[in-house]
Structures are given as structure tokens and as C-alpha cells.
């Protein structure tokens, strides 16, 4: 049984740790966080160094996960860790459900109540947060974050690093670009371009001067 090192001891990182603890796959769970040494604990877990100290802890007996909510930061650090030979497992809470015919990339997490249905594909460093659902044949590119309560219809495609806020819903077959932000409670019923922010029901772009 390996140890687990989580980089980032904020709210998201602690949810990652709680999920990992529930899985029972690791002997010990510890954190790296840039508030160390002032920060000694993240929840019930020990903080043992800053994020830049990960090479000191990474060996064949340690798995690593990036517990950072920001999509670009999480994905960028994960790529750096992978280039250095670190192993980043996928993490699925025991009270989540993932179809055996779905695929989940390295460093991705599916929290409690999450569902990933048949033939869906999650890229690397994806977050399916508490109670979010991904229906059949969806494709989520690397670094996507579905906030709690997001629901995707079937055949939805989401580009890299896009973020969907609390309770957003996406109609089946919609294509969402990369680096796009969808506000809490929005209803997305048509395709969205790269790099825009949308809010409302139905979801509409926020004017640039806002």
C-alpha cells in the first residue's frame, strides 16, 4: 500500500483527501502547501512542506494528486509532475458511480454522489464535484471542472480548462469551447465558443465591458 501526497491544502484539497481516505487505498495521506510551516495541518491531515518540495517526497511508494481548484494551475502542475515521473491516480469516491465502460484520466476525481455514464470520457485533471453527473458519450477534455450539482446531457463535449458553476445544466449534444466559464445555475442550450463567460437561463455571454 502506497502513501498519498496532495499538493494544495485548501478547501478542494481537503475534499480530495477526504475522498482518498474513504477509498482506503493509501497507508498515509499528507499535504504540501505554500502556507507551511505556519500551516501544520489541513483538516485532519499533516502538512509536511511547501508545494515546491514535492521532489523530496516523490518516489515509487508515493502517489501524488493536485488539490488545486483553479483549472490552469492544477493542469500545469500535473503536467510538471508527470514529466518528472510521478504517478497521479484517478480517484473515485466509493459513493460515486462510474460505468465500467467510461474512462477517467490521470489525476481526475469523481466525488461523492457523482455519476459518469457509459462511454463517457474524462481527460486528465478533471473534477466531477459532489453530486455532478456526466451522461453517456460525453467528452471532457483535460482540466475541466464541474462544480457541485452540475448535470450534463448525453454527447456533451467540453474543451480544456473550462469551468461550470454550481447547478449548471447542459443540453445533450452541446459543444463547449476551451477556457469557457459557465455561471451558477445557467442552462446551456447551444454551443459555446472558447474563452467566454455565460450566465442565465438560457445561458448568454457576459458583455466584455462587464
TrEMBL record:
GO terms for molecular function: transferase activity. Keywords: Repeat, Transferase. Pfam families: PglD_N. The keyword Transferase applies. Substrate binds at residue 69. The keyword Chloroplast does not apply. Acetyl-CoA binds at residue 145. It comes from the Bacteria. Residues 3-80 form the PglD N-terminal domain. SUPFAM superfamilies: Trimeric LpxA-like enzymes. The record marks 137 as: Increases basicity of active site His. InterPro entries: AcTrfase_PglD-like (IPR020019), Hexapep_transf_CS (IPR018357), PglD_N (IPR041561), Trans_hexapeptide_repeat (IPR050179), Trimer_LpxA-like_sf (IPR011004). The active site is at residue 136. Belongs to the transferase hexapeptide repeat family. This is Acetyltransferase.
